Amino acid sequence: MQQFDAIWINANIATMTDNGAPYGSIENGVLAIKDGIIVFVGSRADLPQFDALATPLYDVQGQWILPGLIDCHTHLIYAGNRANEFEMRLTGASYQQIAAAGGGIASTVMATRHASHQQLFELAKDRLNSLLAQGVTTVEIKSGYGLDLANEQKILEVAVELSQHHPINISKTFLGAHALPPEYSDNPDDYIDAVCQMLPTLQQLQLVDAVDVFCEGIGFSVEQCRKIFRCAKSLGLPVKAHAEQLSNLGGSALVAEFAGLSADHIEFLDEAGVKAMAQAGTVAVLLPGAYYFLRETQLPPIDLLRQHKVAMALATDLNPGTSPLCSLPLMLNLACTLFRLTPQEALMGVTRHGATALGLTDRGMLALGLRADFGCYQISQPAELCYQFGVNSLKQLIINGKQIRVP
Ligand code: NIG
Ligand code: FE
Q: Which CATH class is domain 6-67+365-403?
């Protein structure tokens, strides 16, 4: 007789696998877990015999079960806010103008440098709680508001502490090349060298899962980013980039050159860049929150990405400057309304492709042997999660096989 830790029955299961049905759906299905792993997913008729008295059984009465949501691009450890810049932008200043005048990322760097580890932990914990309450089970967090070794380390250590004290799984990305810190305002190349020097130290402290850069006119050039990618590669760390957000510099092709995990934003990406990504298996991370919040008009090349079969992930980009929007379900709605993604594409973007963007192969779908990370939703079809925003239909959340109390 098979042993299970818990079983969910009478469930519609959006497995997000390639089983031939939209969303990889199994109607009226059953899902069973053991030791934090999915050990059965399929129809009731195929469920092996089990000890019915010893196994908790959840009859979810037609609710939908989806993989835990994955937010594969956030900057959620920061202090302060930029509501003043929001007001400035409403009276005509652009994001680039504010950055050039010493605001933007630089102002968040100042606030974050002044904040203690404990203060950053508390601020970030509230943001993680909001994501959790909306069904998110894995989050990527970038540094990048420290811009010197001590402060980048502080941010990444907060990420580690969060991963120890919060049920959400955290993937840590070093984004030292996010902006030029004031100490290096006349020497960008020296700062790139400094970033390369920070990397081995941070890696040794086990603070880095991947390395990101801001490849942009107001960030760093392709050559500067290449230098950082070389350092990352020499340490065996995967790379990704903020690329083609405001102009087409070729940052996405650079990520592809290094067989990187993802190129993110990519509104200005051209076909050559799309092809390079397709060849390298680099994921396109779409960030409709930043597009919306900055009132951008250049759409990412969705049709080209589809044509060349580049996987599209979707994330919040949660940060105080371009996307102070702490909701992955909101991104589902924005991706469909603004980028014209289908609900199936959008949901793939926050599950299966979100996992790929983080290099994680143990989650993002509901299949045998994968992590038991999933949510049960009171909805009539998966598209409802993209269609409506603001009503939380999440009824149960399981992370690593454990029931999570959702606020
Ligand atoms: O993803 N583009 C660079 N980084 C962030 C914005 C950071 C900020 O403005 O504080 C982004 O849009
Ligand atoms: Fe970002």
A: mainly beta
